[in-house]
Design goal:
With 79 residues, the protein is α+β, with helices and mostly antiparallel strands. 22% of the residues lie in helices and 28% in strands. It has one domain. The longest helix has 9 residues.
């Protein structure tokens, strides 16, 4: 099972995923979302193979898969 949560932080659309290997990844989805809404941006995005994006941050300190993940409602950009 993979958990997935999103949030808006300033002008960034962030997502966090917690994999079955115990890693939490934070992704910036701003560019892919922009590409979906604009055919010219999508063309450049696809041509430059930007779809093979890397996470902004990875936390691998968990020993196992998690069952809950959420962004803070009081501190933008925090878990």
């Amino acid at each position: 099972m993979i958990l997935f949560q999103t949030t808006q932080h300033g002008d960034k659309s962030l997502a966090a995923s917690w994999s079955d290997k115990g890693k939490v990844h934070v992704w910036d989805l701003s560019q892919p979302l922009h590409a979906v809404n604009d055919p010219m941006v999508m063309s450049t995005y696809t041509k430059n193979e930007e779809s093979a994006m890397q996470p902004l941050f990875t936390f691998s300190g968990h020993q196992a898969e998690g069952f809950a993940l959420d962004w803070s409602k009081t501190m933008s950009g925090k878990f």
